[in-house]
Amino acid sequence: MFYHISLEHEILLHPRYFGPNLLNTVKQKLFTEVEGTCTGKYGFVIAVTTIDNIGAGVIQPGRGFVLYPVKYKAIVFRPFKGEVVDAVVTQVNKVGLFTEIGPMSCFISRHVSLGMLGALRRRDASHDHLWKHPRKALTQSCFPFSPSRQRWSLIPTPTHHVTRQWTR
């Protein structure tokens, strides 16, 4: 699920950036350090929307670097158990399905039982139908059409468990 939350971050700035464009440099460094990262507490930071406050810098003794505390608002993506998400199937092999869900990759093993998997819904412009998982391994022969790079939605059952591989 996507959230719009307030966050804090500290920017460590080298003395060569001191000058008339100091605040713009702090903002740019915030964008590059924060956007696209993943934290366990908040999830994936998709985009920084507003910068609320850039605090007074604290000079680091003996180094000359300055530490700026920054308060900002960002859009984050934090998936939770049982959430229905759109996924793009990127690979199908003997082991299972590999999908991409925004910034993360998801692996669905062929050993997941039918009760745990639920159903897959194909998201296609030509037709949108519910396809039940047949009673055999998830291989290329299981799909009545080519699943590569197609859009799918996982519709979980109450006992839905999917093995996830988190990547950056």
Could you please describe the fold and organization of this structure?
- By secondary structure, this protein is mainly β.
- It folds into 2 domains: 2-77, 2-Layer Sandwich (Dna Ligase, domain 1); 86-165, no CATH class.
- 10% of the residues lie in helices and 44% in strands.
- It has 2 helices and 12 strands.
- The protein has helices spanning 22-34, 114-117; strands at 2-13, 38-39, 43-54, 58-59, 66-77, 86-92, 96-101, 104-109, 119-123, 130-132, 151-155, 164-165.
- It has a 7-stranded antiparallel beta sheet, with no helix packed on it. Strands 1, 2, 3, 4 and 5 form a 5-stranded antiparallel beta sheet that branches.
- The relative contact order is 0.18.
- It is found in: Nucleus.
- Keywords: DNA-directed RNA polymerase, Nucleus, Transcription.
- InterPro entries: NA-bd_OB-fold, RNA_pol_Rpb7-like_N_sf, Rpb7-like, Rpb7-like_N, S1_domain.
Q: Helicity level, as a percent range?
A: 10-25%
| Shape by Cα distribution | elongated
End-to-end span in angstroms?
A: 18 Å
* C-alpha Rg (nearest Å): 22 Å
Looking at the chains present, what oligomeric state does this protein adopt? single chain
Unreliable stretches covering 5 or more consecutive residues: 124-168
Order of helices and strands: EHEEEEEEEHEEEE
Q: Number of helix segments?
A: 2
Which class do the helix and strand fractions yield? mainly beta
Keywords: DNA-directed RNA polymerase, Nucleus, Transcription
Domain RNA polymerase Rpb7-like N-terminal: 10-64
Subcellular location: Nucleus
GO molecular function: single-stranded DNA binding; single-stranded RNA binding; translation initiation factor binding
